[in-house]
């Protein structure tokens, strides 16, 4: 296929990974929509300022099936071929994952398969691990369970707190995610 791959990025918060993806896109992919389940997500304001198309809808009061149908429609209307989750804090239903099978990726702040779910940095520090890090993986029905596409290790330093470690891992995420996404959309 010719032209850049068309990627939708889903966010719920500040969207720093979305920004890193946008800034590193080059000719490999194009962000065709930034979508959020949180209409007030700070990342949406950044996307609007940078002239990226946006879609925002809260599932509150409409229920998950209606919300996901609207989301799916917005992504398809934008021409998205791939979905990159970037701090998207809501679980996608099995039905949604099935519709986009093999086309959704996520960035997770641990060295998967270690520390799926939340509080990854605190768990790595508490376990006495020498390193934390981040992983980009394919999204399947299993939480943080799909094929790992790439990882970056970040050393845990004496005196690290979850916050100081998170900051360094986030910088690694911003390097890792665009590089892995570029490879992935070439598949
Ligand atoms: C990152 O730590 C990412 O690994 C996790 O959620 C956070 C999102 O941060 N999935 P941001 O919204 O991209 O700044």
TrEMBL record:
The record marks 144 as: Raises pKa of active site His. It is an enzyme of class 2 (transferase). Pathway: Purine metabolism; IMP biosynthesis via de novo pathway; N(2)-formyl-N(1)-(5-phospho-D-ribosyl)glycinamide from N(1)-(5-phospho-D-ribosyl)glycinamide (10-formyl THF route): step 1/1. Catalyzes the transfer of a formyl group from 10-formyltetrahydrofolate to 5-phospho-ribosyl-glycinamide (GAR), producing 5-phospho-ribosyl-N-formylglycinamide (FGAR) and tetrahydrofolate. InterPro entries: Formyl_transf_N, Formyl_transf_N_sf, GART, GART_AS. GO terms for molecular function: phosphoribosylglycinamide formyltransferase activity. (6R)-10-formyltetrahydrofolate binds at residues 64, 89-92, 106. Belongs to the GART family. It comes from Sphingomonas hominis. This is Phosphoribosylglycinamide formyltransferase. Its EC number is 2.1.2.2. The active site is at 108 (proton donor). Keywords: Purine biosynthesis, Transferase. Pfam families: Formyl_trans_N. Residues 6-181 form the Formyl transferase N-terminal domain. N(1)-(5-phospho-beta-D-ribosyl)glycinamide binds at residues 15-17. It catalyses: N(1)-(5-phospho-beta-D-ribosyl)glycinamide + (6R)-10-formyltetrahydrofolate = N(2)-formyl-N(1)-(5-phospho-beta-D-ribosyl)glycinamide + (6S)-5,6,7,8-tetrahydrofolate + H(+). It comes from the Bacteria.
